[in-house]
Amino acid sequence: MGGHVLGIFRRGGLASLLATTALAAPALAQQPSEMLPTIDVTASRLFNDNITGASTTVITADDIARSPSATLPEIIAQAPGVQLRSLYGAVGSAGTTVDLRGFGAAATSNTLVMVNGRRVNDIDIAGVDFAAIPREAIERIEITRGNSGAVLYGDNAVGGVINIITKTGAGVGKPVSMRAEGGVGSFNQQQGSVSLLTNYGPWSASVFANAIKSDGYRVNNALSQRNAAGEVRYTDVNFSAFFNVSADDQRLGLPGPRAVNPALGINELVTDRRGTSTPLDYANKQGFNTTAGFAYRLTDGVELIVDGGLRDKRQQAAYFSAFGPYYVDADLKTWSITPRLNITSDMFGLRSRILTGFDYYDADYWSPRGGMRGVPDNVYDLAQRTYAAYWQQTLSLTPATDVSYGGRWQRTDLNAREIGPFAFLSPLSSADDQYAWHVGLDHRFNANIAVFARAGHAFRTPNVDERVGNTPALANFDLKTQTSNDVEGGIRLTAGVLTVQSSVYYMALTNEIHFSPYDPFSFFGSNVNLDPTRRYGSETHATLRINDDFRLKGSFAYTRAQFREGPFAGNDVPLVSRFSGSAGFSWNIWQKYLVLDANARFWSSRRMDNDQLNRQPVIPAQATLDLKIGGEVENFFWSFSVNNVFDALYYDYAVASASTLGAFNAYPLPGRTYLLKAGFKL
Hints:
mainly beta
């Protein structure tokens, strides 16, 4: 038992919980709440316009509205190559990580998420709180897989980029549009949302707000989430400007894992699946964001775009054990400004588009921690400044052939110190210069067949949690920057009602950053640069539109994540399923009075976190089916959803013991759930 407890504590106990709230240890992450403003879509750095040769997927507002899936990450996971990792009953997607191209435990640092072309990822280990983005506010989601987005967006784009575009009042065809919706569901879930879009001449405004409360699937699993965003926009022929403010508040109980140890006859997944090992632990967070910007046409074909903003994320968490309470607070403020030029013209008789600009991010992180709230044992004080310049050009060599190329230089300066009577961390600093490049080709043989190919280089700098680690005495400012070299090629087919896109890729990574439980110099394990690793695979998605009322869609991905060299050579990187996919249909049964949607998602087994040796049991393969029936009658609408129809009892995240075979901690997810919603729109 001692070895099992020690192994779980090293990777999945207190340290894992601290990381879950993105306040300390480098393991999992609670995701911060971000809701950034809409900028002029024609001025944003969007993939479809600027990254030739990339594998992309676009999820429209209609796809989101019709989807039977309960959360935004589950909708995103219908795209090929996307895998999920969920904690704490996945209530409202709190604690859910989206993983592009198989990065497992490090997915939050290798998948860049943006809202309206502005990055959301912070300098800590946290990912993005998709629960804080109202589904009704989303115009579309653009997903590009692979590292091609690194030139335009920089750090964290190794696995790919998810760009969420929100709606604006300028796109409404009438002066005022309003929508209100309420719902009730399993585990005493209550939710509501309201939106208002208006425009008058060149002026437009939008407001989105939503709230959700749930007791949660497990004990100490309650969620309370509120968020709102408002924007004012001015749009003219040669000038547009916007101002956006948003705020959110989340309170979440942390139920902890369920223990399994066959040698001791322990299997809480069977005896007490919905119970808790941490009945008092919690993680709360509040966010405030404001952004403003403008786009000005300097001359024909030359547009200046400037936007900047402030994000303020505050978090409070508490953990209780036999050793007493431990409190962790954090305040992260990030200022940014991102001026750029959008140049559209002819060059040597060829149609050309250039995006070039400069990015500046200034982040300050302040985190008191200790056994008494208000009386910290120590305080982490970190500051990071990022400067970057980039250039990306797309040329039409012929009416059927486009090429793009670009490069980025980025410098990251980090300064850190620890304050307090038990401080171990002397002032430390690091400075790192990195670059990214991309070359892409897109050729259309005819209206039905097109091919694409690309190559690129990207990077990921260590975040502040990975540098500080579990204990200040073991802070590691010698971590090297992770790099990736990518190649990919694919085909797009359109044959009447059928559309298909398929691609194959290979990624060679150096200095990949992971948490290792096997550090002989650390009781808790540490963050290390791995021996060289690789990702390779294929991704395919297809849509078959039978008629205007019935559509079939599906995706399939083969994803292989392996160690290339070192003691784990040939082993699988943990938390990556080799096979994943989805299949579904949308059926307008009767003139929108009655509509039926279905979606099934499946994924193969995956290695548990901590199991670089590949000797522990695997997380089992699983499949789920979601159904939704609904309809509209004039201005009123309703829907009834059943998620996980066949009541599969599963988990997609578990932490293996570092020392005891067969022992692990798992985070069980809900079985069958229900949700009834109704509302009206004007």
